[in-house]
Amino acid sequence: xxxxxxxxxxxxxxxxxxxxxxxxxxxxxxxxxxxxxxxxxxxxxxxxxxxxxxxxxxxxxxxxxxxxxxxxxxxxxxxxxxxxxxxxxxxxxxxxxxxxxxxxxxxxxxxxxxxxxxxxxxxxxxxxxxxxxxxxxxxxxxxxxxxxxxxxxxxxxxxxxxxxxxxxxxxxxxxxxxxxxxxxxxxxxxxxxxxxxxxxxxxxxxxxxxxxxxxxxxxxxxxxxxxxxxxxxxxxx
Length: 237
What we know:
alpha+beta; globular; Aminopeptidase
């Protein structure tokens, strides 16, 4: 199954947004079409997609932060009638290989809904099944009380999210404690940048303070993603 880039000038860009992103993500979790275009133009974002017979059947959206060398899988979506057909696996293989050689991130992360805080439905999928998918690909969860910042003025934050680790740079993967912790500084740098871009500043509120306090100098503990009961779940943001 071939994975290809969808660039700013591709006629498939609007198809990816309208037919993959919009049906699979609530509006308050989704960046606008204009924001996606701006990210592609700046090089901070890119799109990898499985395209068959001229139609994108699944896509993964990357967001790159050079300051912290953190790469975020911000969105991954597959057409509803093609779920469990191998498309997600092909995209994940690209994330763990092609994306790594493209920018050489220290950490590759993903925002994932916590099953305890979100209800599965036919439109946006099953959160537990999504965690099982990431577990099959070796993902683990950072032990931080994570929530998605407000993406635009007036939009609500998204509680009940986990921050999953998908891949680490070779220099981190070779460390003796790599199975237990990840360094805090790249995550702190990335989250500071995220809040400044999304909310204008790093706010001084209990939820944000708790999030940054969970990134001590000794590192952030990693949790097994398939042990749902052990995963942090922030509801009050």
